[in-house]
Write a structure and sequence with these properties.
Length: about 400
C-alpha cells in the first residue's frame, strides 16, 4: 500500500503486534464511490478523479466532526475484507509500508482492534506507555508547539476543522485598539515599514524586487518576487524562512532582512498587509529553492538582529539563532485534490493532521492516552520529528493510503 513520509517503528504504537490482533472495519464508517455522493459533494471533490491512486472515500456515517478520507484501491479492499472480523492478510504482516498504513487506519478510527473490553480504535488502541516524553527538545519553538497542542486538547471542541484553526492561530497576539490606532490601514503600514513612495526602504527594494499580488491572498499579504531569481515551480518542494519578531520590532527586522534575502537568493517574500497580519506569529516569510540558501539568509539576519525580541511561530523548526528565525518546507501543489488542499503550507498541513487526531481522541473519553499525546504519536506516523518540528527527509510526492480530504 502507498504511504506518505514513512516514520520509524509505527507498529509499536498499538497495544500488541499487528500479527496478534483481530481487526474489523469500524461500523461507524462507510466506503462510498465518488459517483455515489450527492451532486454538490461530487463537484467539490471532482479533482480527485484525476488521481490515479484514488479509488473512493471512507467517511463517517454521521456528521460528528471527523474527517472524510480519500483512499486507494488496496485500502478500500482491506476495509471491505474486514467487514467481517479477522486477522490481517499474511502478505501485510511484516511489510513495513503495510504496517504503517494499518497503524494509521487504526489511529484514525477507520479500523478497530479486538480487546478484552470490546472493539477499540484511536487513542484506546494505543499503548499508554508508548510516549517516552521525548517530545521536548529544549528549544523554545518546540515548547511553544507542545503548548499549542495541549491548549487545543483542553478545549471543549471536537470538530477537526475548528481544532485545526485554533492550532494554526496559536500565539497570535490580541488585536487591540492601541495597535489599530497605530496602524489603521495599509497606507499606515507602508509608512511604518518605510516602503511608501520616497520611503527609506523603497529604493532598495525596487532595485531587486517587484511588488506582486497573490491571487488567493491579496488582502492578507504584501508580497514581492525577485527580479533575478525565477519563481519556483508549484510542483516542487521549496523552503521557507519565518521571521517572527514582536510587532514593535518588525520595522528593524524588515530593514535587515531585505538585503539578506537578495544576497542569499530568495525568490519571493511576503509580510502581513495589515495590523492583524502583524500580530500573527508568521508575520514575515521568505521562500528559497534549497535549504543552504535559506540558512545563508538566516545567518546574515541573525548577525544583524542579535537579541531582537521574538514572538515565535509554532510548528516550525528552530535554527541556531533562536525563536526569531525558523524554517519549514511546504508540500508541492497538487492538481488532483480539492481546491482547498492544492497548495497547503507546512503549518496548515501539520495543523490539519493534528486537528484530525485530536478530534478522534476527544470522541473517545475512555482512552488512557491523553489526546495531546495521541495527536503527537499520530503525527509521528507521517514522518514528522515532533521534537524539533523539522520536515521529514522522505518525499512529499508519494501518496498516502488514506488522505484527509475534508476539514
Amino acid at each position: 500500500m502507498p504511504t506518505e513520509m514513512i516514520a520509524g517503528e509505527p507498529a509499536g504504537l498499538l497495544v500488541a503486534r499487528l500479527s496478534d490482533l483481530t481487526f474489523r472495519a469500524n461500523p461507524d464508517y462507510e466506503f462510498v464511490l465518488l459517483d455515489q455522493l450527492p451532486a454538490q459533494e461530487q463537484e467539490l471533490l471532482s479533482a480527485l478523479r484525476g488521481d490515479r491512486d484514488f479509488f473512493g472515500l471512507i467517511r463517517p456515517r454521521s456528521a460528528n466532526g471527523l474527517t472524510i478520507k480519500a483512499v486507494c484501491q488496496q485500502t478500500a479492499e482491506l476495509f471491505k475484507l474486514l467487514q467481517q472480523p479477522g486477522r490481517l492478510p499474511s502478505s501485510m504482516v511484516g511489510d513495513r509500508d503495510s504496517e504503517i498504513t494499518v497503524s494509521r487506519l487504526v489511529c484514525d478510527g477507520i479500523l478497530q482492534i479486538a480487546q478484552s473490553s470490546g472493539w477499540s480504535c484511536g487513542a484506546s488502541a494505543c499503548r499508554p506507555d508508548k510516549f517516552d516524553a521525548a517530545e521536548q527538545s529544549g528549544q523554545t519553538l518546540a515548547g511553544l508547539s507542545l503548548q499549542a497542542i495541549q491548549h487545543a486538547a483542553s478545549l471543549e471542541i471536537t470538530d477537526s476543522a475548528d481544532l485545526s484553526s485554533r492550532l494554526y492561530r496559536y500565539n497570535t497576539l490580541p488585536f487591540t485598539a492601541q495597535w489599530l490606532r497605530r496602524i489603521p490601514d495599509g497606507s499606515a503600514l507602508e509608512q511604518y515599514l518605510q516602503i511608501q513612495v520616497g520611503g527609506s526602504c523603497r529604493q532598495e527594494i525596487d532595485q531587486d524586487w517587484r511588488r506582486v499580488s497573490l491571487a488567493t491572498e491579496q488582502d492578507a499579504w504584501l508580497a514581492w518576487d525577485s527580479c533575478a531569481i525565477p519563481a519556483q515551480r508549484t510542483d516542487a518542494v521549496g523552503y521557507k524562512l519565518y521571521l517572527s519578531p514582536l510587532p514593535a520590532h518588525l520595522r528593524e527586522v524588515f530593514r535587515a532582512s531585505i538585503p539578506a534575502f537578495t544576497a542569499a537568493g530568495a525568490h519571493h517574500f511576503k509580510i502581513g498587509s495589515n495590523v492583524r497580519g502583524l500580530l500573527r506569529p508568521d508575520k514575515m516569510v521568505a521562500y528559497f529553492r534549497d535549504r543552504p540558501a535559506l540558512e545563508e539568509a538566516a545567518s546574515r539576519i541573525a548577525k544583524e538582529l542579535s537579541g531582537c525580541p521574538a514572538q515565535g511561530v509554532p510548528f516550525t523548526a528552530e535554527l541556531d539563532s533562536g525563536p526569531l528565525i525558523s524554517w519549514a518546507s511546504d508540500p508541492p501543489s497538487e492538481a488532483n485534490v480539492p481546491v482547498w488542499l492544492r497548495r497547503q503550507s507546512w503549518r496548515q498541513w501539520i495543523c490539519d493532521r493534528l486537528g484530525s487526531a485530536l478530534a478522534v481522541a476527544k470522541h473517545d473519553r475512555s482512552a488512557a492516552l491523553p489526546p495531546w499525546r495521541f495527536a503527537l504519536e499520530r503525527l509521528r506516523l507521517e514522518g514528522v520529528d515532533v521534537r524539533t518540528w523539522a520536515p521529514g527527509s522522505t518525499s512529499w510526492h508519494s501518496k498516502p493510503a488514506a488522505a484527509v480530504v475534508s476539514r
